[in-house]
Amino acid sequence: MKAWRVHENGEPREVMRLDEVPDPAAGPGQLLLRVRAANVNFPDALLCRGHYQVRPPLPFTPGVEICGEVVAAGEGAGIGIGVRVLAQPPLPGGGFAEYAVADAAAVRPAPEALDDAEAAALHIGYQTGWFGLHRRARLQAGETLLVHAAAGGVGSAAVQLGKAAGATVIGVVGGEDKARTARELGCDLVVDRRSEDIVAAVKEATGGRGADVVYDPVGGDAYTKSAKCVAFEGRILVVGFASGAIPSPALNHALVKNYAILGLHWGLYNTHDPAAVRACHEELTEFAAQGVIKPLVSERAPLDGAADAVQRVADGTTTGRVVVTPGLRKGAAR
After folding, report:
1. Strand pairing class (2-6; 16-20)
2. Within its chain, how far is the Cα of 214 from the centroid?
3. pLDDT tens digits for 246-255?
4. Ranges for the Enoyl reductase (ER) domain (predicted)?
5. Structural domain 2-122+295-324, CATH architecture
6. What angle separates helix 153-164 from helix 176-185, to the nearest 10 degrees?
7. Residue ranges of the chain assigned to CATH 3.90.180.10
8. CA–CA dist 250, 86 (Å, integer)
9. Are the CB atoms for 171 and 182 separated by under 8 Å?
10. What is the rounded CA–CA span in Å between residue 101 and residue 83?
11. Count H helices, E strands: the chain?
12. What pTM value is reported for the model?
């Protein structure tokens, strides 16, 4: 089969190589999946660079989130052939390939309301948003939610989930195209950080109170601005550092302004509370069936375009989700 592999660390476009490798096989309790769609996540770029908290042995295949079809099942797997599932293939055998192996106990049914590309973009981003907003920040109806990178893959999920929770959502973006996307997603107010003062805009929109919850997958200057416009007893949710800059919070500021700084590493819930992960997936599936959420897939790339897709996500030039679809012919990307 064809699979992208990283033989040395560096920028995705430079170090990802499309190789011909043996087909994988499903062991006991495992499933062999034909990859129907593989979502591109920012951690894929960090993995290529060697900057992620997990460093798989070289060479490895990136691609941490897929929608796949079961083509073979190992002993005790308990899932039938032909079933469409969501999976996170364990590294070093990720999803930017024609086939991948996953543990049967960890896969989830793909929502019928979503196509392959949309389903591939559901699990990590929306679970992160749900656990962040509800489990960590305890977002309430009527509160104001500020979402950084609101037109991106992670931010767009938080916008939709915030609206579903009854919050007023302020989206921060960079550029008019992304501002248009954020409005279409349902943001009540969109702030273009390139031409507007984030802090002033948030305070004006909230009558000087500030945002009750801040969803920050960016870090760096975004965090600094958030601390200046978070409300009394507000919560700043630290989700990631897409800017590449990890902030150093001034804890004295948090004390005198009376707000909370909350970290979120969603993957830990798979170990510490797997029942909650299953329940979350059931709720997200119902939301999808109702049309409350729908992953924003801006581009479907063929398998041979995966390295370029990962690089563009790393560079922050994409809107919504970019999904690699191995069955898509070269030149047919949309």
Report:
1. antiparallel
2. 17
3. 999 999 999 9
4. 11-324
5. Alpha-Beta Complex (3.90)
6. 30
7. 2-122+295-324
8. 40
9. yes
10. 14
11. 12, 15
12. 0.93
| Beta bridge partners of residue 237, listed in sequence order | 215, 262
- pLDDT, tens only, 68-106: 999 999 999 999 999 999 999 999 999 999 999 999 999
DSSP letter at 253 equals: H
What pLDDT sits at residue 136?
A: 98
**Phi, psi at 35, each rounded to 5°:** -75, 115
Give the mean model confidence (pLDDT) for residues 20-42: 97
What pLDDT is recorded for position 174? 95
pLDDT at 329: 60
**Which residues make up the CATH 3.40.50.720 domain(s) of the chain?**
124-267
> Distance between CA atoms of 183 and 216, rounded to whole angstroms?
18
CATH homologous superfamily of 124-267 equals: NAD(P)-binding Rossmann-like Domain (3.40.50.720)
334 CB neighbour count, 10 Å cutoff: 9
Coil, helix or strand for 286? Answer: helix
Q: Which amino acid is at 60?
A: F
- Single-letter amino acid code for the residue at 69: E
Tokens matching residue 72: 């073979």
pLDDT at position 334 is 45
